[in-house]
Amino acid sequence: MVVAILRGLIGIATLVFIAWVFSRNRKSIDWSLVGKGLAFQLVIAVLILKVSFITNLFDWISRGFVKLISFTNYGSDFLMGSFATGDVAPGLQNFAFYILPTIIFFSAISAILYHYGILQKVVYAFAWIMKRLMKLSGAESLAAAGNIFLGQTESPLLVRPYLSKMTRSELMCLMTGGMATIAGGVLAAYMQYLGGDDPVQRVLFAKHLLTASVMSAPAAVVASKLLIPETESYDQQMSLSKNEEKSNVLEAITNGTSDGLRLAVNVGAMLLVFTALIYFGNYLLKDVFGELTGLNAMITSNTNYDGFTFQFIVGYVFAPIAWLLGVPHEDIVLVGQLLGEKTILNEFYAYATLGDLKSNGMFVHEKSIIMATYILCGFANFASIGIQIGGIGALAPNRKKMLSELGMYALLGGTLACLFTASIVGMFYAL
Fold it and tell me: Closest Cα partner for 191 from 315, 65, 104?
């Protein structure tokens, strides 16, 4: 345990140093906020992972979450049962008939919670704690808390009236929070990927995914304030935006289902395209370049990879980062590969890879799987820069230029936030 804590502290110190190197204004960094944010993360990790009462509470929430999502299967079986019993590849059957419907169902559930004001009250409670603890503005507190439950394009709706007047640092905090967390619908899908058909495993990964979502909120604040410190005066007021109310719960369900369908189709399309591109790229790298140069034989005889592939490249490029975070050395290349896939492609593709690697017994240590779950739990990838500029820019057209300037910083901040969370959690998992 002592070694794990030391490795974790080294990882955190390294991440803080990286953020300091890339900071736009090092002299203005509020080190008190950084310390409080990291301490807040540590407290959350200790409470959820080590304090029996809180652990049992999160286990109960996770079991309830898994039970809720399981009802998706009844709808899937009713709608697509005849297809699922045919000659369909198991991977396609699992994804098309269970993963995507999960996204749609959870989107509808979120719409119901939003309609009755439950989601807003939970967001406001988290925002109040973060505002008092870390001395944030009202707008960025709400946005940071909203990102725990909502996606990177939905959370800004909570602070829509503030967007046009937000400071550069506040906008950075908003964007970084979006990069560092994931939406509830896809979180439910990742639980299905990692837990498979085992109900115990589903509860386990539901708990870790929920924990990651909560912990990454203060981590995103820390990363954003290191990179773009606050130097301007800001609005202390904290009130949720009153969006257009749905006339009744049926309309809310209808709209939530439609939104979920669009998200599910988008996820399916992205996976199809990215998988095809990876196979095309690997054909050029492995079957052409690797064969001509003899690299394939060298790699096959010295590593677990079958040649000069995209996975091999990103695995070894990102492996040092995985080691610094405290990932066991036997698994650093696999975790490095996942980090690379998430950053360059997207987290959904990386979680699919993690699920395959886990089911095939590729990891030596369970700790590596748990840490990878936290590392991947965020939207920090290059495509998200465009999504945020387009989504937030549509709400506040006068801020598009600043959003574009902050895009790469937000990607770095969101990545660092997920790595902060993984490093802290890794401290509690001794080999």
Answer: 65
